[in-house]
Design goal:
disordered C terminus; seven-stranded mixed β-sheet; 18 strands; eleven-stranded mixed β-sheet; 2 helices; single chain; 11% helix; mainly beta
Length: 266
């Protein structure tokens, strides 16, 4: 279990609840962004360094009014073989209150042969809050025989202030044939959640232009239901292309944020 909550004190974001247990590790956090000196960067580490078959992992983040958090992980996480009829599970619960901004930016998962993972991300975002969610995976066979993972199930659910779901996206891949990936070796998705009033068509055009400029990448951006933001889907020849795309998406997302701290809703 990994459970953090954040509040705004002295003009910047700080942690006011910090609970975690094996395999999660949390050390220092940092205020390092010149564009938003109130933003807190949190680096989540894992003592095990990998996800193993049968693991049951849970994360919860609660951002109080006016806070700004960027959560990243220490590096790409390996997902190892799961015994038959078992799989690793991970649930992530994100609650973003009024005027807050969350960047949930974990590094991609590396799926080893016979890996099985089921993950769920639930985001409850206030109407005037912002959020950027990344998710990505690649595949790896250490002996180079082209063996694939067994299963990947992923669900993303978006709510606004506890409402009924505005968006539920589900993906499930079971015992895939390598041919379905059409030569691509890495895949990603991003969800950009924004308050009303943004020009989503303009943002979609900016995202499309940025993604088109990355060699080895196929990407598409679409508006989300109820004009809640945008969704981005990515397929790439290599993982570095996904990382490059995510960096471009993050830059465009940050351009949408309030320029002045006194404009934040508190």
């Amino acid at each position: 279990m990994f459970d953090l909550s954040f509040v705004r004190r002295g003009g910047r974001t700080v942690i006011d609840r910090r609970l975690f247990a094996w395999p999660f590790v949390l050390t220092r956090s940092f205020h390092i962004d010149r564009d938003r000196p109130d933003r807190l960067t949190v680096i989540v580490q894992t003592g095990s360094g990998a996800v193993h078959g049968g693991d049951n992992l849970a994360q919860r983040l609660t951002l109080g009014p006016g806070t700004a958090v960027s959560l990243v992980s220490q590096g790409a996480t390996s997902v190892h073989r799961a015994a038959p009829a078992t799989r690793a599970t991970e649930s992530v619960n994100l609650h973003v209150e009024n005027g807050a901004s969350l960047e949930y930016l974990p590094e991609p998962r590396i799926l080893f042969p016979d890996a099985a993972l089921s993950q769920t991300i639930e985001l409850d975002c206030a109407t005037d809050a912002y959020a950027l969610i990344f998710d990505a995976f690649t595949m790896h066979d250490p002996i180079g025989m082209g063996r694939d993972f067994r299963e990947l199930a992923s669900t993303f659910c978006l709510r606004r202030s506890g409402s009924e779901p505005l968006l539920i996206e589900r993906t499930r891949i079971y015992r895939p044939e390598r041919s379905i990936f059409r030569g691509h070796g890495a895949f990603g998705s991003a969800f950009m959640v924004l308050p009303p009033g943004h020009d989503l068509a303009d943002l979609q055009e900016k995202l499309t232009t940025a993604l088109e400029g990355i060699r080895g990448l196929y990407g598409a951006a679409t508006t989300s239901p109820a004009q809640a933001g945008l969704g981005i889907r990515l397929a790439a020849l290599e993982l570095r292309c996904i990382r490059q795309a995510f960096e471009s998406v993050k830059v465009i997302y940050r351009e949408t944020l309030p320029r002045s701290l006194n404009k934040l809703s508190l």
